[in-house]
From TrEMBL:
Superkingdom of the source species: Bacteria
Pathway: Carbohydrate acid metabolism; 2-dehydro-3-deoxy-D-gluconate degradation; D-glyceraldehyde 3-phosphate and pyruvate from 2-dehydro-3-deoxy-D-gluconate: step 2/2
Name of the featured protein: 2-dehydro-3-deoxy-phosphogluconate aldolase
PROSITE patterns attached to this UniProt entry: ALDOLASE_KDPG_KHG_1, ALDOLASE_KDPG_KHG_2
Matching SUPFAM superfamilies: Aldolase
Gene Ontology MF terms in the entry: 2-dehydro-3-deoxy-phosphogluconate aldolase activity
The reaction(s) this protein catalyses: 2-dehydro-3-deoxy-6-phospho-D-gluconate = D-glyceraldehyde 3-phosphate + pyruvate
Quaternary structure note: Homotrimer.
The EC number(s) this enzyme carries: 4.1.2.14
Family matches, as Pfam families: Aldolase (PF01081)
Organism per entry: Thiopseudomonas denitrificans
Keywords: Carbohydrate metabolism, Lyase, Schiff base
Length: 204
C-alpha cells in the first residue's frame, strides 16, 4: 500500500459511477487536475467494468476498488485490474484475502480496538472512516499510542476541512466524493471536475 498511497496526491477521489461510458472521461478530467490515483466504489452494477475500462484506456492512472465488503469482491476487483482495495471497515476474512492475494488494502477503522486489530494483522496504513465530526480529534488522540500507523481519513471531508486534516502528521491522504460529485459527473462537467481536482491539490 505504501507506494500507492504516497502517489495518491494527497487526495483520493471516491467515485460512484453508474454509466461505464463516463468512466474514462471522468478519470481523464481528474488526471488533468493532477490526481492520478482513484477509488472506484463497487456500489454500482458496472463498477468492475469501469475499473477494467480505466485500466485499459488510461494506464497512467492508478485504480483501486472501494466499498470492498467481502473476500469475493476483493478477488473480483483484482481480476478486473484494481491495483488496491479500500473497505469501510476491518474484518479478519478481508485481511486474510488481502494478504493471500497480495492485494494492497486500506481497511477502515474508527475505534482504538479496530486500529489494534488491523495493526496486529500487519496493516499500518488505515482509513479512518467515517472521519465525520470527530475525525481530527481521533487522529490527534491516535497519534500518541499508534506512532507507526498513518491514516487516510474519509467520509465527511470537504474542501473547507481538507487542509486541517492534511496538516496532521499521521495523515497520508484524504478520501472523498466531493472531487467528483455525481451531479457533475452525470452532467459531464469535466472542466469543473478538473478545477475541483486542481483546487484540492493546491490546498495541500
Ligand atoms: O466505501 C468505501 O470503501 C469508502 O471509501 C467510503 C468513502 O470513503 C466515503 O463514502 C466517502 O465519503 P464522502 O466523501 O463523505 O462521500
Amino acid at each position: 500500500m505504501e507506494g500507492i498511497l504516497v502517489q495518491a496526491a494527497p487526495v483520493l477521489p471516491v467515485l460512484v459511477i453508474d454509466d461505464p461510458a463516463l468512466a474514462v472521461p471522468l478519470a481523464s478530467a481528474l488526471w488533468q487536475g493532477g490526481i492520478s490515483v482513484l477509488e472506484v466504489t463497487l456500489r454500482t452494477g458496472p463498477a468492475l467494468e469501469v475499473i477494467r475500462h480505466i485500466r485499459q484506456e488510461l494506464p497512467e492512472v492508478v485504480v483501486g476498488a472501494g466499498t470492498v465488503l467481502s473476500a469475493r469482491q476483493m478477488q473480483q476487483a483484482q481480476q478486473a485490474g484494481a491495483q488496491f482495495a479500500v473497505s469501510p471497515g476491518f474484518t479478519p476474512a478481508l485481511a486474510e484475502a488481502a494478504t493471500g492475494q497480495q492485494m494492497p488494502w486500506l481497511p477502515g477503522v474508527q475505534t482504538a480496538s479496530e486500529v489494534m486489530q488491523a495493526r496486529e494483522a500487519g496493516f499500518r496504513q488505515l482509513k479512518l472512516f467515517p472521519a465525520g465530526e470527530r475525525g481530527l480529534e481521533l487522529l490527534d488522540s491516535y497519534a500518541g499510542p499508534f506512532q507507526d500507523v498513518v491514516f487516510c481519513p474519509s467520509g465527511g471531508i470537504n474542501p473547507a476541512s481538507l487542509a486541517r486534516y492534511l496538516e496532521r502528521p499521521n495523515v497520508i491522504c484524504c478520501g472523498g466524493s466531493w472531487l467528483a460529485p455525481r451531479v457533475l459527473v452525470e452532467a459531464r462537467e469535466w472542466p469543473t471536475i478538473t478545477g475541483l481536482a486542481r483546487q484540492a491539490r493546491e490546498s495541500c
